[in-house]
Amino acid sequence: APAAGSPAAPVPEAPDAAAPEGARPDVLSFAQQRLWFLDQLDPGTPLYNVPAALRLTGVLDTAALTGALAGLTARHEALRTAFPADADGTGRPDTAPSVELPLTTVDLTGLTPREREREWARLAARAARTRFDLSRPPLWSAQLLTLTEQEHILLVTVHHIISDGWSVGVLLRDLAELYRSRLDGTPAGLPELRSRYADHARSLRDALDGGALDGQLAHWRDRLAGPLPVLELPSDRPRSAGPRRGAELLHDWDGTLARDVERFSKEHGVTPFVTLLTAFYAFLHRHTGQTDVIVGSPVAGRTRRSTEDLVGCFVNVLPLRASVTGDLPFDALLRHVRERAVEAYDHQDVPFERLVEETGTGRDLTRTPLFQVMFGLQNTPGAELALPGLAVDDLPVHPGTSRFDVTVLLEPRDGALRLRLEYDSGLFDAATAELFAQRYRALLRGALDRSTAPVGELPVMADEEEARMLAGPGAADVPFPVDRTFRELFEEQVRRTPDAVAAVDADGSVTYAELHERAARCAAALRAAGLHPGERVALLAERSTRFLTAVLGVFTAGAAYVPLDPMYPTARLARILTGSGAALTVHTRATGALLDRITADGAPAGRTLLLEDALAAAPPGPARAPVEDAPGDLAYVIFTSGSTG
Question: How many CB atoms lie within 10 A of CB 315?
């Protein structure tokens, strides 16, 4: 899961975790077990890296920084833990008493300012893609880039199996205090760690094994019963298996919108998280038309005070399922989402990994289980770093991967909101992700202004996009070449891009050159069957590249086509065949029996031609040029239902 931050769920007063039992070995938490298993499928994958980049401006004491990083390693067991495989092939945590973390340094002072910016960005991206060996510590790295005497960039990459978003805040706080103590030569004023991560992992497994969470499991079984929806956002490319490439865009929303979200939430008795999440559900419904939607949302997973200061992978993910319809008023959807969210937080102790097991979700290498999109409000406490004598700015850095189709994280920043939208760049172009961000904001703004409006009537386009669409392409008339036929225009495209894919169906794809060559063979077969220019050809075939080939073949032969949809009743097909006066009927092997039933009703099929035979080979003889045709010639005859007018 991405960096955690539960929507204002306070850490309850609860007894501290029990002290570890020396006789019982440490175990993997459920989250660690899943991450370890995924790493076995793709060893060293950077998909679960958590990178950070900090620009340090001022006088930096490199020795003190090196000592502070060593102090972090000594203080937090997670930073000294690796996960080798046992003899039975399962992973186990192995914490070393000490681990050296080398702070590698790179001097960029000899480069020009532009070269320095380009080089640090390249090194940051490379560091974010560090391939960790989970069997050997440390599972984090640090690198210091020197740009000038007064400017440095600290790159830190941590594997998710030992860290989460809350942990980042803990690490930054502790690093600042350890750096100060080394500068001053005084003890670090850090809180005592009252438990170990191993305590958390063991207590959670004991709770599940002992039946303490049976009630929570029953809730999730009920909530996730039945067929689970698969969200299908419109994408720019088909989905494929393999490593997920990803990218991220950032939008800083103005303080006015953030204040309006706060005001709206108070008026409706919900948290800002619920308001923002409800708008996201509406956004997803408007883009997919789906009414049953599951969105994943991270929660901190730290339900004991003794875990507040620990570094480790505590984060849990809740699959929030909601019903969305276009006629549902937004404020009614708001109440529905609030109810589902509260229920989920009341049952948040069940690990996500256990929910995957309970639902019996089959493994699909192209999609994540239970949900395909993630949403979170990142209100993680204490995530700012303050180092003596240094101004610190966090810099955007991304590993170039994506765990989900789309992840939307909102962060309160100085009274405003920052949107982080991570997307699968194998599915979506950057322009599409940009539109998603703009449309989500437009819908949220519309919902804040008109809370009683139905979801289907809320604005889904930003003003700029709507203006572009209303203005049309280039805001100008585009001339159409009415002096040429479709066949001629198609052949021009063949000459421009012969090897480009022209069409795709379930059986594969066909290029422009291939489609043109097949259409020529089809036209030759039609002529050999006695077809004359101006006659009509009935096409009884399924939607496919072969159907498209037949259409182009009919055009090339100078004739017109009459589509016969195999899904129509035979009586209607017989009436169309009779009324069209088709001189020739082209069919496929799959529709041959259907043609027999149509003609049995007395419909005259004229001459018939099997499409597979027509495409197999042209009749003997020299290739013939297309017939003379004109733009005004008949192209097709379509029989519509009366309801179309």
Answer: 25
Tell me the pTM.
Answer: 0.70
- Structural domains of the chain, with CATH: 30-229+246-304+311-457 (3.30.559.30), 486-644 (3.40.50.12780)
* CA distance linking residue 43 with residue 84, whole number of Å: 12
First to last CA, the chain: 53
Distance in angstroms (rounded) separating the CA atoms of residues 592 and 598:
10
Which one-letter amino acid corresponds to residue 116?
R
Q: Angle at Cα 553 formed by Cα 550 and Cα 556, nearest 5°?
A: 155
DSSP string over 129-158 = T----TTSS--EEEEEEEEETTEEEEEEEE
Q: Do 413 and 289 form a contact (C-beta atoms < 8 A)?
A: no
**Interatomic CA distance for residues 553 and 520, integer angstroms:** 6
Spatial CA neighbour of 175 closest among 323, 75, 83, 108: 75
Q: What is the DSSP string of 410-436?
A: EEEETTEEEEEEEEETTT--HHHHHHH
Amino acid at 251: H
Q: What is the pLDDT of residues 356-404, one digit of tens each?
A: 888 877 667 678 889 999 999 987 654 567 888 999 998 988 888 898 9
Helix or strand run (H / E) with residue 16: none
CA-to-CA distance for 500 and 522, rounded, in angstroms? 21
CA distances from 71 to 233, 290, 478, 494 (A): 46, 51, 68, 66
